[in-house]
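Dear Dr. H.,

I hope your travels went smoothly. While you were away I took the liberty of generating a structure for the chain from your last submission, since the lab meeting agenda had it listed for discussion. I wanted you to have the full record in hand beforehand rather than looking at slides cold. The sequence, exactly as received, is reproduced here:
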Amino acid sequence: MLQISQCRVKPGYTTESVRKKAAVILGVRPEDIKKLNIRKESLDARKKPELFYALTVDVEVEQEKKILARCKNKDVRIAEEKAYIFPTGGTLIMHKRPVIIGAGPAGLVCAYFLAVHGFCPIVLERGKCVEERQKDVERFWETGVLDGGSNVQFGEGGAGTFSDGKLNTLVKDKYGRCAQVLRLFVQMGAPADIIYKNKPHVGTDMLIGMVRNLRLAIENHGGTVRFESMVTDFEIKDGSLSAVIVNGNERIETSHAVLAIGHSARDTFSLLGEKGICMEPKPFAVGYRVQHVQRDIDMSQYGEQADDVYEMLGAASYKLTAQTSANRGVYTFCMCPGGYVVNASSEEGRLAVNGMSYRARDSKVANSAVIISVTPEDYNDKTPLGGVEFQRRLEEAAYAAGGGDIPVQTLKDYKSSKATKNTEGLPLQMKGRYRGSNLRGILPKELEEAFLEGMESFGRSIRGFDGDDTVLAGIESRTSSPVKIVRDDDGISSVCGIYPCGEGAGYAGGITSAAMDGLLVAEKIAGKYTMKKEQKEEKT
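The corresponding predicted structure, in token form, is as follows:
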């Protein structure tokens, strides 16, 4: 198999047009290409409005070595494919079924691979199944009545279910975990193009079905998935896990528990502290969701194009970073083209926002978080849970600013610390009740100054980004976990048998990286243990 790393084609390309382009590069006839596979796609807009897709293409032809020898194009080479191999054959016997705490991407993927390899895991999710959870979330957005156990943060699929479904990650993938995770997602119903697109996404509407299919697959392979089953205690004997307590009264014996609890499981963080499990405060970032007219973003990113070209390209995204004069990092995060700002709260009297898009990304409004880096030095509370206290303080202020609704404000009014009273005609797409408010005072003064400096910088990159009618919504406080649950090279915490995993434990930052970490922890377990035969038979 030969690989072409710079096969440049125009938007609207077809398999046949790629085949013809690849044939020209290789100096063969299109009909000589027996098989063609797109491995990677990224849009090249450096010379906009002239746009191209740069493709990496694997091509199968006869006499590959001969063709490669005569081809003078340095972008052609022998394709290298490193197959992913899941470790098996652990020599230690696992006598009790492993427990996976949390059914987000980390927990579900970990459970899936353990189930496939005969470990019969028990998945315990504090929230509801994704079908019921969707109803609870939509009811909350309509009425403002919060279900503390079933919301945007808690429930099957984790916090990422009600997001954009972005699947890109910056994690280095030398072991092939990312590709394996994306293949699994396709198997569960994601479109095949997530395998090769530079910034793949599936959308909230598609994620819901994928999550359900993953649960069914776990069950079909011998696993058990339970909902409204919150782990409320851990039994620890001689420094090792012996059981977990569910809902305060049910005891499940196990010597292995994967702690895939998500970044908002604040009560569980407190429990871990009480149990003496080693944790550290970690940096994260806070700020506001900003909204713009999507077509303005499209024009900035793609240049002047005909309407049908914009439609073909899809809603444009962006990624912006700045370093302020006070040495604060400001950057855009979780950009949702054609999306919505959503009420993502999980605690009474506290308000947090997030962004989401459906698969079509067709709301006509772009949003992203503009966030400022914070470190443990910024936290008043110097314990491992200092970041949690910092988040809660901001969320209480945001709740008060909007009277329980999402507080929104134009950038012009934010600069003058004046409440926005009339939101009519502004670029707003919201899930959840909102009201014009004054966001000043929610963030500490030094973070407000950093935000404004960052917005001014971004306005130099994208015209109008810092325009008067840019809409802010607050507070974006759940960008990542404020806690790191320490684990060793075997993936084990300071208590033997407890495996911190995913975003909540501080080892991931998004759907794909969390899923990859779930796969990593499954590897750690399967590489060391095998399931006791009698336990498998008992499960069957």
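Two observations you may find useful: The CA atoms of residues 100 and 123 lie 5 Å apart. The two ends are 44 Å apart (CA to CA).

With kind regards,
E. W.
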